[in-house]
Structures are given as C-alpha cells and as structure tokens.
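Hello everyone,

My group is preparing for a crystallization screen and wants a predicted model to guide construct design. The compound we'll soak is zinc ion. Before spending weeks at the bench, it would help to have a computed complex in hand. I've included the protein sequence and the ligand's SMILES below. Output in structure-token form would be ideal because that's what our pipeline reads.
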Amino acid sequence: MMRHTVRVLALLCLLAGPAGISRAENVPANPRFAEVAQKLDAGGETYVYMNAKDGMRNIVRTLRTSLAPEGADPSVIRGFDLADKMLESLGLYSIEDVGASAVRQPNGLYHCKSYVRIPEGRKGVLKCLGGAPHACEALKYAPEDTVLFWSEDVDLATLLEAVQTGLQESQFQEAQGMLLMGLGQVDTALTGIAGKSLTLKGALDSLGGEITFIAGLDPLKRVQVPASPAGPLSFAYPKAVLMVRTKDATLYELAVKTLSMHDPSTTETVEGGVRKFSIPVPIPPDFPYELKPVIAQNGQYFFLATQPEYLNQILETSRGGKNLAGAAEYKELTANLPQQGNSFSFASKRFAQEVVSAVETFMKALSEIQPHQRWSAMQVSILRNLQKVPVLGSASVRVNEAGGLLVLKNSPGNDAMAAPLAGVAVAGIGAAVAVPGFIKARTTAQRNTCRENLAKMDGAKEQLALEKNLKEGAEVKWEDLIAAPDGSGGYLRKTPVCPKGGTYTIGKIGEVPTCTCGARLP
Ligand SMILES: [Zn+2]
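Reply:
Good plan to model first. Here are the tokens for the complex, ready for your pipeline.
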C-alpha cells in the first residue's frame, strides 16, 4: 500500500507565503515537482517538496514588508534591497526546488534522499561544493576502526571569490570596503609570517578543495573524570585528525612559522617523506586527556592530529593498511549508496552508543547532584530523543549533478525534514548577511535623527535667548522651549524623543544641548 504524505511545515508557510510550498492538490500544476519527484522515493514515511524559487524571494519580501513597511527609513528599505541583490549574486536564488523523502527499511534505518534542484547550474557560493563526483580518496586514510568519518568537497578559494563578486554586484559599498580592508590586513599578516609575498587568495589557491575529518575511539583507554560529585565519570578515549587536501606545503609552512614564533624550542621532523611538527600545549599534570597535537604534510594532505600515534596510524593505513572501506559496518551502511560523490560521511554504531551512554551518565550525575531540582524541558527532550532513536550507525553521500545536488543517506532517524530546514537555513544565511548592514543603516539613521533633534533644540534656545534677552549661562527649562498643549507659545511643537532611547540635556544658554546616546552636534 502506498502511503504518500506531503507534510507542510507551518513555519515555512509562514515565512514563504502560500506560494512557498505546494500542497498535494496543487502539485500537478507545477511541472518542476515531477522533476524533483524523479530523484526521490515515493511510498515512504515522508515526502517533502518546497518551491524555493519563489520561496526564498518571498521570505526576503515578507521580512521586508514586516520590518520595513511603507514610509520606513529609506536606509532600512535599502538594506533589504541589498539583501535581495546579494542573495541573487551569491547564487542562492538559483535554487529552484528542494525535495526530500524517507523510506524505512527492514534493518530499522531510514533511506533518506534530498534533492536541491538548480537547473541553470550552481552559481556563486554554490560553486564551491566541488566538481564532478569521484571515489572517496580520503577513505584510504581512515583506519578500519574509525567511528566518525566525514569528507567534503569544498573549494575555499571559489567561496572567497563568490563572496567578493557577490558584494561587488550588490553594490554594498560599506561591506565591500570592510572586506577589502580586512583582506588587506590578512594579506599583510600572511606576507609577514611567510617571509615572502602571500595573499589570502594565494594561500587558498594552494588548497586542493577537500576537507576530511576522521575520529576513532581507543578501545583500551578511557578518559576518567574524577571530580564529579556523582562518582567518577568516564568516556571512551577519542582521537581525531583533520585533513586538508593541498597542492603544496603553503598551509603547513604557514602553520609551522606561526607556531615557531610562539615557541622556538620545537623543531620539525621528516620521516619517510612526511614533515611533522608537534604543537606545544601546556597541559596540567592531572588533566585526564593526553593531548599532544601535531601537524604534518605528506605531499597530498595537511594533517592536524590530536596525538602523533593516531597520525601514524592514519599514515600507515594510507600505505595499504586495513581501511574503513573494508569494515563490515561501513559496507553494510553504504551498500545502497553511490560509490562516487562529493561528500561522504559515516558514523559507526559504536560512536552512537558512546554518545548515548555519555549523555545518560552525564544526566544521571546531574540528577544526583541536584535531586530536588526538576528537569528542564531541554533535558527531558534530550532524553526522550535518545530513547526514541535506535542506536545505529549512519552514512551519507552527496552527488553533484548537472542540474542539482542529490544527497542520499541511511540514518536511524528520519532526516528528510532536514532538507527544507536547510533551505530555511540558506535563506537565514542571506538574512544574516543582510542583517549587519541593516543594523548599521538603522543605527546611522537613528543617529542622524537624534542630531536633528539636537539642532532643533539649539535653534529654539537661540530664539528664546534673543526674545527674552537671556545672557550666557542662563538656565533653560523644557517649558521655556515647548509649545503649550493648545499649540501656543514655545519654539518646539513637542518634546523631542531620541530614537536610540537617550536622554536630552538642554544645557544653559551658550552651551550645546547633548544626548546620552552619544550623538553630538557637529
Ligand atoms: Zn540621542
């Protein structure tokens, strides 16, 4: 039996307006829905479609209507126009549709798919998510007992370029100026460290467009936290490495030079073509975790590892040791996922178990420390979620396609709802990009209004002094300046109010009026 549900998020409707989400009955009218549906699985628990083409613009428009109504300060309206242009030039409006599905499988996992339809191809910041799908190279570095693996195609040089172009096209002068100044400072700092001319763009161009995170749990060691009133707490001993694909050793050399400046006692070692440099970290003697960070470079990757032993394990694995791809759990979790992609993630059941048991121990300890205190709503919801989601592993692959991005995932929870939420998050990024400019524009407008008030007060005092023949130093009261309720007398129609909430001091004759908000007469 087909169970076909189209869930409508009230929040999205609220933000995106009625055109933002298609209800089931409207769907046939939208031919783009069929294109998205083709990428997804019908008949599952969840089936979501969001018309992002109109949705994202609608979100900006809705925010504009509510935050900057007709007759609002022109600088505020300008802020929203800029946000609109910025989203356009960052390429975020090129996302036309977002869809997601989740089908529960016999093994208890949900097979989730989400598709972001970008028919004209990825533009702006979306270009930084890599090129054609490929096999996961970094997987060769992940030891067989890896509990957490995440490798993502991300081109930071393209991202920087897209933001710069976006700012240029949006004619957002203040932000452009700030970015140029910031970049200038970064370039100067980089050149200073490198000892040769180096720009941020140059440094980013030396990267290979992929970032990977690998973590393991030591089966023989546990981190003991003795100082808990509920008795000793312990959790599995974590070890991790961050790998950044590189074209050359620019990043590594920058890191070594920066670290050497602070502590010249440490030196580089070279072993089998791998350059290594330990990071001196002062750790108190009774600290329960042995952190000995090390950076390294092997020609293909820059590494940052929590312990040199773990770095060695990673490097040995890459030289033909047993890797994650051969692990039974990994094979099982990725069996129905594509081999070629642009982002690969894996979390083992062991990791999920450790997280659940650590949170449970922590919560138990918390309730023993505060037996009389009622649990907060957040604590209750964390516990409930822990009990609800089965302790299973998860894996996902993102595939770059010509007309969009496809993400496939096997997960213990139903993640399909994450896709439309991601859409909102993207719109949120746009809003976040716009908000600093918006706030700045509003602050400037408020200061100008306050200054105008001060100028009016100053003018009123001058007229009062002339008419009443007051000398310098004579006291002035509000009653002397403000017109009576019937409009007679006075020099100001009503008491001025500072838009920033400041308090005015009229001052004596010969003094300038002031405001506590900091605005001042020139
Ligand atoms: Zn003021």
